[in-house]
């Protein structure tokens, strides 16, 4: 009799061989310029259950450029492990040829050149084509949305997320979990949740006063003759990382014991397969998968990692499906006798020039965009530099935003939060209002201007640094380091909180930051209620219109060590 | 399904030690409170479960739950508060369960310690690191 472990390992090996051949084939195809939709969708079906996962779309309905990070450090036990592998190391780890479509989709190297070769990625009309194709082959496939869906664009902001709700309903999502959704405010969230034809899951969302579950924790689906429990896990640090006053009566948290209890509950209810649809972030999910027994699959989100193969934690699969509509995961599972016996996985890259748009979905999208089209298309300036956001310490989009804050708000120092959403722009492209809103659109955009002591600045830097580099993933919040304009610093990511940040320097004078002195600081997206200031997009728009063409110099003001 | 936080604790404790060791005065107050509660008896581990958030959503009101089946009293300490003593729960012989939930105020990132006095006069303790943060930037 073959044990479950043997079976899994056999399938893992098969999957790896399959994956590698897929990648190799792509490279050859690319050389021949014949990347086709059929090849992108090619999948040798397995077992009786199919899961489709998409996450962190951030309201991106149209195809886009999205440069993956160059710097994505892991600390403690996960240093050097996926997803903390980038560039050439990533290509080597997964056996991907540099310059291939997979290299363009999954890494940052030669981004501008490869973008010209392979085109934009994503687009929810293309995603719809992929979902329909999978469902044509596997009618009972279960489509799950990991959240961060209703925020991130001008149209999502103006329609209070309705454009995304309509698109995801048309796509046929069957359950979702959440994070930025709550920044629409609790009343709007509940209004949408009541209208949804599918459950809004969050086992870790509690009423703060009564300590009772506030949303459905899980749903059990019957598919392919198996009972599949899908447990939702919302972003744990919602009231800390985002404005808690927008959803004042809710408490979140990792709540590991709660997850263990819910897993037990669904197993007792006869679940053959337990899937956690999570917005924990990769490292938190990896730790949770290793500590909570009984989870078969974690569909992870939040940290925007795209991995071409599952990461195994014991016998649990952790699946990372990227962000911004760049990828859709198809996961076929063999579920029998109350157990997961094998899997086959594919991270399907949505090459928008290769995958045909679905006409029905395109109509839904264009219908929502039509009232705003002129506004979206207005050109505010031109960029000579590649603009991107991802990276632990800085990105050119935030350098541009910080430059605008320094100039427009006459500040010594500018702070831009370490968000991971926001697509890229290529050198020479116009910056349209849509592009600016894709990098800034949210419900608490006030660009404050205030005085801070050098000591407070240091405390803030240490605090945010610990959110990213605490060696225990359960203490991490999943964003990147706050981006800083006008000030340089050194960071040793291996040190404990309070001693990571040193050599803080005011760039315009070259002088060290004095803890006792006050500095004029401008930033945006404060989690504090009643923050005053113009919206960040108005600040950047004024800057762009004054400069016309902008270029962003390489940022060398952050010195990183300890990695 | 019995989960303990010990894995997290091991990490948290080491981390806390580096940060909080200089606060010798506070440690003296913690040691004093411990000595008073235990009468100097050795304190073991296991048989006590302390539940706290890893990161407090609001440092002014942090939910803390503690459970120690068979305990006659449980003392809570907030190691880094100016006055570390939080409270002591006493359980009579008719108590249906030896568990309690309360909300406490934490001055900053620190360990919360729970010590239980068992019916046989022995003591056990558990401790969790609770981070009090000034807010971050979600992804």
Kindly describe this structure.
The complex is a heterodimer of chains A (563) and B (139). By secondary structure, chain A is an alpha/beta fold. Chain A has two domains: 364 residues, Purple Acid Phosphatase, chain A, domain 2 (4-Layer Sandwich), CATH 3.60.21; 184 residues, 5'-nucleotidase,  domain 2, CATH 3.90.780. Chain A is built from 18 helices and 24 strands. The longest helix of chain A is centred in the N-terminal third of the chain and has 28 residues. The N terminus of chain A is likely disordered. In chain B, a hairpin with a 6-residue loop joins strand 4 and strand 5.
Topology:
The complex is a heterodimer of chains A (563) and B (139).
Chain A: H1 4-31, H2 37-41, E1 49-54, H3 87-94, H4 101-106, H5 111-118, H6 124-137, E2 142-145, H7 154-158, H8 162-171, E3 175-176, H9 186-195, E4 206-207, E5 218-223, E6 226-233, H10 238-241, E7 250-251, H11 256-268, E8 273-278, H12 282-291, E9 297-300, E10 311-313, E11 316-320, E12 327-336, E13 339-349, H13 359-369, H14 373-377, E14 379-383, H15 396-408, E15 413-416, E16 430-432, H16 433-440, E17 447-453, H17 454-469, E18 483-485, E19 487-492, E20 501-506, E21 511-512, E22 518-524, H18 536-547, E23 549-550, E24 558-561
Parallel strand pairs in A: 1-2, 2-3, 6-8, 8-9, 9-11, 14-23, 15-22, 19-24
Antiparallel strand pairs in A: 1-12, 4-7, 5-6, 10-11, 12-13, 14-16, 15-18, 17-22, 19-20, 20-21
Helix pairs in contact in A: 8-13, 15-18, 16-18
Chain B: H1 6-20, H2 24-38, E1 43-44, E2 49-51, E3 62-67, E4 71-78, E5 85-90, E6 99-104, E7 110-118, E8 123-130
Parallel strand pairs in B: 1-8
Antiparallel strand pairs in B: 2-3, 3-6, 4-5, 4-7, 7-8
């Amino acid at each position: 009799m073959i044990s479950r472990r043997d079976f899994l390992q056999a399938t893992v090996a098969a999957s790896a061989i399959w994956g590698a051949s897929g990648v190799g084939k792509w490279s050859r195809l690319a050389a021949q310029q014949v990347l086709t939709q059929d090849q992108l969708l090619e999948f040798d079906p397995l077992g009786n259950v199919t899961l489709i996962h998409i996450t962190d779309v951030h309201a991106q309905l149209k195809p886009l450029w999205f440069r993956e990070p160059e710097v994505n450090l892991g600390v403690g036990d996960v240093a050097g492990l996926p997803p903390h592998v980038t560039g050439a190391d990533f290509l080597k780890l997964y056996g991907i040829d540099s310059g291939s479509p997979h290299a363009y989709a999954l890494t940052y190297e030669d981004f501008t050149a490869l973008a010209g070769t392979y085109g934009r990625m994503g687009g929810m009309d293309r995603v719809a084509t992929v979902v329909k194709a999978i469902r044509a082959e596997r009618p009972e496939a279960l489509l799950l949305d990991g959240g961060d869906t209703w925020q991130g664009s001008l149209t999502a902001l103006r329609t209070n997320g309705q454009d995304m709700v309509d698109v995801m309903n048309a796509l046929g999502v069957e359950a979702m979990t959440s994070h930025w959704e709550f920044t629409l405010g609790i009343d709007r969230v509940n209004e949408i949740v009541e209208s949804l034809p599918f459950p809004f899951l969050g086992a870790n969302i509690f009423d703060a006063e009564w300590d009772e579950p506030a949303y459905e924790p899980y749903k059990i689906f019957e598919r392919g003759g198996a009972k599949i429990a899908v447990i939702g896990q919302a972003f744990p640090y919602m009231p800390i990382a985002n404005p808690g006053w927008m959803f004042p009566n809710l408490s979140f948290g990792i709540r590991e014991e709660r997850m263990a209890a819910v897993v037990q509950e669904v197993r007792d209810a006869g679940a053959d397969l337990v899937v956690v649809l999570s917005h924990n972030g990769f490292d938190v999910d990896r730790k949770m998968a290793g500590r909570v027994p009984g989870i078969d699959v974690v569909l992870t989100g939040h940290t925007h990692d795209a991995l071409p193969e599952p990461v195994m934690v014991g016998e649990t699969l952790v699946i990372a499906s990227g962000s911004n509509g760049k990828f859709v995961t198809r996961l076929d599972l063999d579920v029998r006798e109350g157990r997961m016996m094998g899997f086959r996985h594919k991270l399907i890259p949505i090459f928008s020039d290769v995958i045909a748009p679905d006409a029905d979905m395109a109509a839904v999208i264009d219908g929502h965009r039509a009232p705003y089209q002129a506004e979206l298309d207005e050109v505010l300036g031109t960029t000579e530099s590649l603009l991107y956001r991802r990276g632990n310490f800085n990105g050119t989009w935030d350098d541009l935003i910080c430059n605008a804050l320094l100039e427009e708000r006459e500040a010594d120092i500018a702070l831009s939060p370490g968000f991971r959403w926001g697509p890229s722009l290529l050198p020479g492209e116009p910056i349209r209002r849509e592009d600016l809103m894709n990098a800034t659109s949210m419900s608490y955009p006030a660009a404050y201007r205030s005085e801070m002591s050098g000591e407070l600045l240091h405390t803030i830097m240490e605090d945010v640094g610990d959110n990213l580099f605490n060696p225990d993933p359960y203490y991490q919040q999943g964003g990147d380091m706050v981006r800083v304009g006008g000030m340089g610093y050194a960071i040793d990511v291996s040190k404990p909180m309070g001693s990571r940040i040193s050599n803080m320097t005011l760039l315009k004078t070259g002088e060290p930051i004095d803890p006792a002195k006050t500095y004029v600081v401008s930033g945006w997206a404060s989690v504090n209620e009643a923050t005053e200031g113009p919206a960040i997009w108005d600040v950047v728009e004024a800057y762009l219109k004054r400069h016309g063409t902008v270029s962003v110099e390489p940022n060398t003001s952050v010195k990183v060590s300890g990695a | 399904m019995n989960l303990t936080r010990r894995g997290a604790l091991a990490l948290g404790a080491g981390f806390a030690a580096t940060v909080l060791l200089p606060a010798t005065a506070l440690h003296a107050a913690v040691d004093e409170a411990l000595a008073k509660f235990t009468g100097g008896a050795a304190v073991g581990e296991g048989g006590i479960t302390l539940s706290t958030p890893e990161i407090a959503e609001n440092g002014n009101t942090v939910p803390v739950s503690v459970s120690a089946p068979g305990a006659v009293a449980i003392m809570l300490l907030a190691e880094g508060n100016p006055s570390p003593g939080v409270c002591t729960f006493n359980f009579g012989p008719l108590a249906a369960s030896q568990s309690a939930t309360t909300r406490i105020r934490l001055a900053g990132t620190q360990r919360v310690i729970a010590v239980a006095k068992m019916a046989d006069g022995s003591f056990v303790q558990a401790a969790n690191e609770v981070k009090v943060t000034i807010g971050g930037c979600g992804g």
